[in-house]
Write a structure and sequence with these properties.
alpha+beta; about 20% strand; rod-shaped
Length: about 350
């Protein structure tokens, strides 16, 4: 039971009140007790408490552990200033706690004297078998609320792993679309035609008796060149149609010589005409001259062939890109979840 002491002075003491109390008069060895000193005084009064330092003895045998304070506005121009002293003792005894002296505007006030009894537990020396050693450190009890979030996150991690495995299998089944761009050496029309004429010359066909074969190969070479060079189907046209088409395109180069060559060829092939050797050589030279005069220089000698993808190939490629993107997102998400789960499990252990 707390002890209260009120000290009233004369004159101005009607406005100054000192209350000193202790929260327990009897404690066990090592327990702590709080001694409170409350001073109620005018709001502008100068209140001075004695200098009290922790880790010193309040009285012999009673140690002062801590000092704290508080101020409360009581209204009507007064206030209450408090000091709370935390005391303890490790010696069994009955201690007398002297009143704390407080100065208010230079005048000394104090509370009453208190008592503190420190007791110890009786030890039964007749039954030593009833003494038990300290208990070991006990584990915290399992609580589902601590682990439920980690459990469901682990379930989510497993589901994401299964989804990633399924997508990976789909990615393996959906083979990549590989497009290879081919670079093809391109033989220009005039090069191809001159090579064919060189072969005719190498075989001396212009001097052979089989003039029909000679003029057939020579005119076919010219037709193929005209078709590739001028862009119309000369292989399916008659000689007169070829000459007309060339004139229609506005190319008058060597038209007369070419017309004479085709006329001679038609006579040899269809009318069993026999041309002279000089005539054969002249027609061969006219063919070479026509090619040289009409050939195009500076054309590319290589051609890039890019294969075209079908609609199925395009859809397959888009599916692979989408699956790879989802797999990367799932991988990052699973790594973050795994790190979070491991960290929280380590903190709960």
């Amino acid at each position: 039971m707390a002890c209260l002491c009120c000290v009233f002075g004369l004159g101005a003491t009607a406005q100054v009140q000192v209350e000193q109390q202790i929260d327990s008069m009897m404690v066990l060895i090592g327990e702590q007790v709080h001694l409170t000193v409350d001073v109620t005084a005018p709001e502008k009064a100068n209140i001075q408490f004695p200098e009290l330092k922790p880790s010193t003895y309040f009285v012999p045998g009673v140690e002062l552990l801590a000092v704290s304070g508080d101020t409360v506005d009581m209204g009507e121009g007064t206030r209450k200033v408090s000091r709370i002293l935390t005391l303890t003792s490790f010696d069994e005894n009955l201690y007398s706690l002297p009143p704390v002296k407080v100065k208010v505007d230079g005048r000394e006030y104090k509370g009453n004297q208190l008592a503190l009894k420190v007791i110890t537990l009786d030890v039964d020396t007749l039954h030593p078998n009833q003494f038990f050693p300290p208990k070991d450190v006990q584990n915290n009890p399992f609580q589902w609320s601590d682990w439920s979030a980690l459990f469901w996150l682990s379930v989510l991690l497993v589901l994401l792993a299964l989804l990633s495995y399924w997508l990976l299998q789909r990615l393996k089944e959906n083979k990549p679309i590989i497009t290879r761009i081919r670079i093809v050496k391109k033989v220009l029309p005039h090069q191809k035609a001159l090579t064919a004429i060189d072969e005719i010359k190498a075989e001396h066909m212009q001097t052979s008796e089989n003039q029909k074969d000679y003029y057939t190969r020579l005119t076919d070479t010219l037709r193929q060149y005209i078709e590739e060079r001028f862009g119309f189907s000369a292989m399916q046209m008659t000689s007169s149609e070829i000459i007309y088409k060339l004139r229609e395109n506005g190319d008058q180069t060597m038209i007369d010589e070419l017309k004479e060559l085709f006329t001679t060829a038609d006579l040899v092939k269809f009318a069993k005409y026999s041309a002279l050797l000089d005539e054969n050589d002249m027609n061969l030279m006219n063919a070479i001259h026509f090619i040289d005069q009409t050939k195009l220089e500076g054309q590319p000698t290589e051609e890039r062939i890019v294969p075209k993808l079908t609609d199925d190939d395009k859809r397959s490629r888009k599916n692979r890109i989408a699956i790879k993107t989802v797999l990367w997102i799932l991988a990052v998400l699973m790594m973050a979840l795994l790190a979070y789960i491991i960290y929280n499990m380590w903190t709960l252990m």
